[in-house]
UniProtKB/TrEMBL annotation:
It holds the Pfam family PfkB. This is Sugar kinase. Belongs to the carbohydrate kinase PfkB family. Keywords: ATP-binding, Kinase, Nucleotide-binding, Transferase. GO terms for molecular function: ATP binding; fructokinase activity. It comes from Halogeometricum borinquense (strain ATCC 700274 / DSM 11551 / JCM 10706 / KCTC 4070 / PR3). GO terms for biological process: fructose metabolic process. Transmembrane segments: none annotated.
């Protein structure tokens, strides 16, 4: 996928939109009630994707909304230090920045306890991404968390439609968080997002929340039947796969490609899925094949699990290259 020659060659090729929040990482494994102290880290799935893309030399335009509070100051500073323009970061004077307390399991898997009641990222506004930004973009990526509350729900669907109208590839990550859904139905909301998406990245846990059954290929094919032409599934220690229809611009016929992943000693899996998504987007916008895209994205995710935190563990291209060579 390449930029239209009539657009600004210096404009970002990728637009990412969604929540940005504070992750509080525990000082030990185990349930939250056993944790004595936490370390503050920037987080939020779309924000992780945006920073990961910047690390991979594909700096996007990132639209989000944070509180006009010290946590919001910290997040804006984090984005600036990562090389992102903060022009599309809205500051909300009437709402706080979202917080998430992370619990780590024995296998470095994690659980979350969210403090996100009417916080700033639930109040993203439609039209906050300018038409000119979309006109220059090849890719628009959003996640499912912002579909749980208004007006961020309307803003997310609006951006997906406008991205399609502008000719960009639109990708979506359901990012199932059942505890965040109250006003709207998760399954129906994701179904609507699937209809608007060209590419979906999901996990078996996401699909279980959607009552999908079957092996990964079957579940990916079912997602494709709902609208997307290309579906990436991350499968934990089993690697990942991509299922693409003949309508996908990266194949000429229906195709399934798998990658077994990489062996690492994980420290913290927080943000690994978002790192994978960034690897997919970075590879595809530069014209890589689906097989190379899977290999690259798996490597980005694997390196991310070897350090704590989400954004703080994201690798650059040189780190990924060295990892793959080793």
């Amino acid at each position: 996928m390449t930029r239209n020659a009539t657009t600004d060659s210096d404009a970002p090729r990728v637009v990412v939109a969604g929540e940005m929040l504070i992750d509080f990482l525990p000082d030990r494994q185990g349930p939250l009630e056993s944790v004595a102290s936490f370390t503050k880290r920037p987080g939020g799935a779309p924000a992780n994707v945006a920073v990961a893309l910047s690390q991979l030399d594909e700096t996007p335009a990132f639209a989000t909304r944070v509180g006009d509070d010290p946590f919001g100051d910290f997040l804006v500073e984090t984005l600036s230090e990562a090389g992102l323009d903060t022009e599309l970061v809205e500051r909300d004077p009437e709402a706080k920045t979202s917080l998430a307390f992370v619990a780590l399991g024995e296998e470095a898997d994690r659980g979350f306890s969210f403090y996100r009641d009417r916080t700033a990222d639930t109040r993203m506004q439609p039209g906050s991404v300018p038409d000119a930004t979309l006109a220059s973009a090849d890719w628009v990526h959003v996640g499912g968390v912002t579909l749980a509350d208004e007006p961020s729900r309307t803003a997310t669907f609006d951006l997906m439609r406008r991205g399609q109208d502008a000719g960009a590839t639109v990708s979506f990550d359901p990012n199932a968080r059942p505890e965040l859904w109250d006003e709207f139905d998760f399954e129906a909301s994701v179904a609507e997002a699937f209809e608007l998406a060209d590419v979906v990245k999901a996990t078996p846990e996401d699909l279980e929340a959607l009552d999908y059954e079957g092996d990964p290929e079957t579940m990916a094919r079912r997602i494709r039947s709902d609208g997307p032409h290309t579906v990436f599934l991350t499968l934990g220690s089993k690697g990942s796969l991509v299922s693409a229809s003949e309508e996908s611009p990266w194949v000429t016929e229906e195709t399934v490609v798998s990658h077994e992943g990489y062996d690492v000693e994980p420290v913290d899996t927080t943000g690994a899925g978002d790192a994978f998504t960034a690897g997919v987007v970075a590879a595809l916008v530069e014209g890589q094949s689906l097989a190379e895209t899977l290999s690259f994205a798996n490597a980005v995710a694997a390196v991310t699990t070897t350090a704590t935190g989400a954004m703080t563990a994201l690798p650059d291209r040189e780190s990924v290259r060295q990892f793959r060579e080793s």
